[in-house]
Amino acid sequence: MGKGGEKTEQSGECSTKTFGVYTWEEIQKHNLRTDKWLVIERKVYNITEWSKRHPGGTRVITHYAGEDATDAFQAFHPEPDFVRKFLKPLLIGELDPGEPSQDRDKNGEILQDFRQLRETVEKMGLFETNAMFFIMQLGHIILFEILSWLLLYFLGTGWINTLICAVLLTTSQSQAGWLQHDFGHLSVFKKSKWNHLLHKFVIGHIKGASANWWNHRHFQHHAKPNIFKKDPDVNMLHVFVLGKTQPVEYGKKKLKYLPYNHQHEYFFLIGPPLLIPVYFHIQIMHTMISRRDWVDLVWSMTYYIRYFSMYAPFYGVLGSIAFISFVRFLESHWFVWVTQMNHIPMDIDSEKYRDWLTMQLSATCNIEQSAFNDWFSGHLNFQIEHHLFPTMPRHNYWKASPLVKSLCEKHGIHYQEKTLWQGFKDIVR
């Protein structure tokens, strides 16, 4: 049929269903809050109403309204054939045969090569998880928790013991953060209900946070990394200005909320120290209560019940609050330096509608591999591989890395890898 026309499909003896045939120009108009279409494998779907029920959150799927979402769909869903069942009722048509598979000015050769790379790593078994790896990760987290309590029980609450205990708990909390990140992204066990339960257990019972809150934020970050108004991680609430274009925009609009020429100095006062103990803590509680997420709220309450049961006998209630605040203070530094060294020094800008490979590489860099770097960052030193393949278990990132490097070299895309120290310095820069 001609562009913008319709065609009829007959499936066996089922009733006739009418589909539209659309151009990219037509599809791109449907990117409004009240009118959202997207394309997956040349099929056009109307997600306007269904996006409100999207398990990953309404925002992450809305960010692809009016676009080709094929690579994002593949990246986020470990069982795409199962998810396609939910897409069938949303199907409204397909791309006109004369239209390219990619939208806007995306490079078709890069798209094809990346999809071939994905097929290759799938055939290599790099999306298959080693359950024992994650069991060991959980085991060493619980071990640190137990050691911290035993230290106080047998040796007392002197300041040296308290400091050692705080370091043990900080380590446990930080490593639990990386582990819940794993369970949030991928299926460690074949039955999804166990992955769902373990995610709730680790982030709720061990960390006192919310799985749904994390999913809502983090999936947006992966879908559109370092893109203003789409990636929550670069929404700095006028506290910092990032990238090359935002300072110019603030200058033109004369937005002077803070002395941004000194942000590299006050970063150390309000960035790492306050992110987890203040900003995240308030946001998590507000999100659970305002959205009536009672399940996550109960999980997080089990953390506080356990914590005060363990430490109030040593420090009292007020002392326990001061102690956990100090642990959160330490953990926040660890979290900020690890998560930001891969993204903040990279390109941060408005939406440019890049292909999946180019978009992720422009916003992400790696930190060189070592036993310490792998453990310290929860293998997020391989941030490039993690962003390209979010459902790949972290113990396989190093195997995919040479293949990604080769593809980037072929297309002249910069694959940036640096030392841990250089990563820290670049945050300040």
From TrEMBL:
GO BP terms = unsaturated fatty acid biosynthetic process
Which species is listed as the source?
Erpetoichthys calabaricus
Which superkingdom does the taxonomy of this entry point to? Eukaryota
The pathway is:
Lipid metabolism; polyunsaturated fatty acid biosynthesis
Family as reported in the entry's similarity comment: Belongs to the fatty acid desaturase type 1 family.
Q: Which UniProt keywords apply?
A: Fatty acid biosynthesis, Fatty acid metabolism, Lipid biosynthesis, Lipid metabolism, Membrane, Oxidoreductase, Transmembrane, Transmembrane helix
What residue stretches are annotated with the Cytochrome b5 heme-binding domain?
A: 19-96
Q: Which InterPro entries match?
A: Cyt_B5-like_heme/steroid-bd, Cyt_B5-like_heme/steroid_sf, FA_desaturase_dom, Fatty_acid_desaturase
Q: Where is the signal peptide?
A: none
Subcellular localization, per the record? Membrane
Major localization listed first in the record, in broad terms: membrane
Report the protein name in the record: Fatty acid desaturase 2
| UniProt keyword Lipid metabolism, yes or no | yes
